[in-house]
Design a protein that fits this description.
single chain; mainly alpha; 84% helix
């Protein structure tokens, strides 16, 4: 297994430690806004959790896409493409499950809080994708300026994938 395949598991563990506490914080923030505004939504907790799993699925799919892209650029099918495809598959399944479960919740007409849930998670995805794109830019710059251009394929692919996701979430946030 290559260094990318070995290094992705500790990265995922640290990433999940950073992302896992976000769901209760988002729920508390939205619940506080609901009490402040006098709005009530009995499905707010379910909407927050499903949106949270949608976010995790998206991030797993983006990490898997990055690994697949880096493996295809470096033509190392065994070490990077297969684990990347596994993460991509897992992320897409989680995305689809959360998306269809969110569609089964009662309509947005119950509360304006449901729209705030989407906006908060779009902002969190904007933050996460922007931070990962910035780290990828720094890693790519470091490897290129130290003369190790062969090691820059993963950071460059990550920069493209997470930079594109960041731009997409920025466009969604600005449009609203």
């Amino acid at each position: 297994m290559s260094m990318i395949g070995l290094g992705i598991l500790p990265f995922l563990m640290y990433y999940l430690y950073a992302v896992v506490p976000l769901a209760p914080l988002v729920y508390l923030f939205l619940k506080w806004r609901a009490y402040r505004d006098g709005a009530a939504d009995p499905w707010l907790g379910a909407a927050v959790l499903l949106q949270y799993f949608w976010t995790l699925g998206l991030q797993l799919a983006l990490i898997g896409l990055t690994m697949v892209g880096a493996g295809l650029v470096g033509s190392k099918m065994e070490g990077e493409v297969r684990p990347g495809l596994a993460l991509l598959f897992t992320g897409v399944i989680a995305l689809l499950a959360a998306f269809f479960a969110l569609k089964r919740l009662p309509a947005f007409a119950l509360s304006p809080l449901r729209g705030q849930t989407w906006r908060v998670f779009f902002a969190l995805n904007l933050l996460a994708c922007g931070l990962l794109a910035l780290v990828a830019l720094g890693a790519a710059s470091f490897t290129l300026f130290t003369g190790k251009a062969a090691d820059a394929r993963l950071p460059l692919v990550a920069l493209v994938v997470f930079g594109a996701a960041w731009a997409w979430f920025l466009r969604l946030m600005v449009r609203e």
